[in-house]
Amino acid sequence: MSEQISEQSTPRVRRAPVIAVCGSGVENARLNAMAEVVGELIARRGAVLVCGGLGGVMAAACRGAAQAGGLTVGVLPQAEREAANPYVAVAIATGMGQARNVVLVQSADAVIAIGGEYGTLSEIALARKIGRPVVGLMTWDLGAPHLIAVASPEEAVEHALRLATAVREAGRQPGNPAVTAES
């Protein structure tokens, strides 16, 4: 027997903003320190942190968020969840390699890019293509309207959350005009 659940009895779930943190998997003390603060601030503001789930900036951001009691999600290029860094609470093993970057940015309301290499550049491009705003902290110098360059982790999180709210309120879908710094 299946029971039908009426819409009246189904509670409305308030979904937390989802902020992607993208950056190099290569260890860099300066970038990792900034990423850890970004992760902590995302968690303290009640948002979910999603990243590529590996090392470097990704692990540092997850560590900061986890230590602040936040939820961390890793979208892994490998097919094994065990590949995730130890601070990932929810590991999504895609087996997609770098193609997982699409899943990562599509899952987010806004993206923070910290440092990074070509994988980060692809995440920035994919995010912009689908209308997700990108905040950059010591990353590719692409200028406006491609990303909003900031100088500190605090600014990065503040901008990302403000833009994530604008995206959510606008109900952006892939292919719609992007939310910009002016939003």
Mean pLDDT: 91
- Cα(first) to Cα(last) distance is 49 Å
Radius of gyration: 16 Å
Major sheet size, sense and barrel closure? 7 strands, parallel
Quaternary state reads single chain
How many independent structural domains? 1
Measured by DSSP, the beta-strand proportion falls in 15-25%
What CATH architecture do you see?
3-Layer(aba) Sandwich
Widest beta sheet: strand line-up: 4-3-2-1-5-6-7
What structural class should be given to the helix and strand makeup? alpha/beta
| Assigned CATH class | Alpha Beta
Question: What is this structure, in a nutshell?
Answer:
By secondary structure, the chain is an alpha/beta fold. It has five helices and seven strands. 35% of the residues lie in helices and 17% in strands.
Q: How would you describe this structure to a colleague?
A:
- With 183 residues, this protein is of the alpha/beta class.
- It has one domain: 3-Layer(aba) Sandwich (Rossmann fold).
- Helix content is 35%, strand content 17%.
- The protein is built from 5 helices and 7 strands.
- The protein has a 7-stranded parallel β-sheet, with helices on both faces.
- Helix 1 (29-44) links the parallel strand 1 and strand 2 (48-51).
- The longest helix is centred in the C-terminal third of the chain and has 18 residues, at 153-170.
- It starts with 17 loop residues before the first strand and ends in a 13-residue tail after the last helix.
